[in-house]
Amino acid sequence: MSAVVTCDMTCDLQTPPAVDGPDEREYQHGMKLRTAKFGIGQVVRHRKFSFRGVIFDIDPEFSNTEEWWLSIPEATRPGKDQPYYHLYAENAETEYVAYVSEQNLLPDESGEPVRHPDVEAHFVRNGDGAYQMKQGRPN
Can you give the pTM of this predicted structure? Predict the structure, then answer.
C-alpha cells in the first residue's frame, strides 16, 4: 500500500518523475511530491531496533523539533528530506508513539495484531492484517 504525500500549496509540474530513482516530482517553489512507501494503517517494523507499529500519520518530510533531530547520534541520523511516519508503536515491554524516517522502516510481515491501545480506538483490522481508519476518524 502506498500513500501520496502532497504539497501544501498549489504546484505546477516542472519535470517528470525519475524513472530509476524514488517516485519524486519537482514543482515550482522548490516543493516536491513524493510517494510514501508505506500507508496509513500499514503495520511496519524498525530496521534496526526491536519495535513495530501501525502508521497513523505521515509527514512528507521531517516535521519535528531540531532538538529531537539533533538528539539522534550523527552517525545514524537520517536525512530530513524523506517521509516521516507517526506510529502507534510497541516493543516487548511497552506501547508508545514513535516518529520514524522512511529509511528506517520495513513492512512487518508477522501477521500479528498490534496491541497499542490507540490502535483499537482509531482502526479496524482487515483480513490481510493491515488496519483501516474507523469512519469519522481523521488522522
Answer: 0.75
Q: Residue 64 in contact with residue 99, Cβ under 8 Å? A: yes
Q: Which CATH number fits domain 37-133: 1.20.120.610, 2.60.40.3500, 3.30.565.10, 2.30.30.390?
A: 2.30.30.390
Q: What is the pLDDT of residues 84-134, one digit of tens each?
A: 999 999 999 999 999 999 999 999 999 999 999 999 999 999 888 789 999
> Cell 501501525 maps to which residue?
54
